C-alpha cells in the first residue's frame, strides 16, 4: 500500500504548508497505489481521527461506557480527539482541497468516514519529475 503514492506526494504540491504536506503524505501512505477489487487507487477513507494523530494531537481519555448490549468497548472506541483538534484537521483538508491535492468523493457523517481522491498526477500539477537517489534515467 501507498509507497508509490508517498513518493509522488513528496514530488507534488510543494507549495502546501508543512502540516498539509504531512497530512497528504499520511493519506497517500494508507491509499492503494493501484486499483484493487474493493478499492480504487488513490482513495483515502481512514478518517479524521487518524489524521489528527498524524498532526500530533493527543486523544482524550474519557470514561468509557459499555455498549448498549453490555459488552465492553475496545480502547480505540474510548479514546477520541477533541472537537478543536478535529477542526484543525478540517482546516488542513480545506487547504488540500483548495490546492487541488484532494477531491471529496463522499462526505463523511456520523459513523461513516469521508472518502477523498488524491490528486498525485505529476503532469496535471505541472511539476517535473525529479529522480530520487538511486533512480536510473
How would you summarize the topology of this molecule?
Layout: H1 3-11, H2 18-30, E1 43-44, H3 48-54, E2 60-61, H4 75-78, E3 79-80, H5 83-98, E4 102-106, E5 115-118, H6 122-125
Antiparallel strand pairs: 1-5, 2-3, 4-5
Helix pairs in contact: 1-2, 2-5, 3-5
What does this structure look like?
With 137 residues, the chain is an alpha+beta fold. It has 6 helices and 5 strands. It has helices at 3-11, 18-30, 48-54, 75-78, 83-98, 122-125; strands at 43-44, 60-61, 79-80, 102-106, 115-118. The chain has a 3-stranded antiparallel sheet with strand order 1-5-4. It has a two-stranded antiparallel sheet with strand order 2-3. A hairpin with an 8-residue loop joins strand 4 (102-106) and strand 5.
In short:
The chain is α+β, with helices and mostly antiparallel strands. It has helices at 3-11, 18-30, 48-54, 75-78, 83-98, 122-125; strands at residues 43-44, 60-61, 79-80, 102-106, 115-118.
Amino acid at each position: 500500500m501507498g509507497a508509490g503514492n508517498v513518493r509522488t506526494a513528496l514530488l507534488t504540491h510543494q507549495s502546501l504548508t508543512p502540516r498539509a504536506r504531512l497530512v497528504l503524505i499520511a493519506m497517500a501512505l494508507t491509499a492503494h497505489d493501484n486499483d484493487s477489487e474493493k478499492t480504487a487507487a488513490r482513495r483515502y477513507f481512514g478518517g479524521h481521527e487518524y489524521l489528527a494523530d498524524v498532526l500530533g494531537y493527543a486523544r482524550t481519555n474519557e470514561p468509557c461506557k459499555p455498549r448498549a448490549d453490555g459488552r465492553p468497548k475496545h480502547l480505540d472506541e474510548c479514546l477520541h480527539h477533541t472537537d478543536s483538534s478535529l477542526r484543525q484537521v478540517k482546516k488542513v483538508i480545506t487547504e488540500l482541497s483548495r490546492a487541488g491535492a484532494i477531491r471529496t468523493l463522499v462526505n463523511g457523517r456520523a459513523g461513516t468516514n469521508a472518502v477523498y481522491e488524491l490528486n498525485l498526477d505529476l503532469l496535471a500539477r505541472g511539476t517535473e519529475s525529479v529522480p530520487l537517489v538511486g533512480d536510473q534515467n
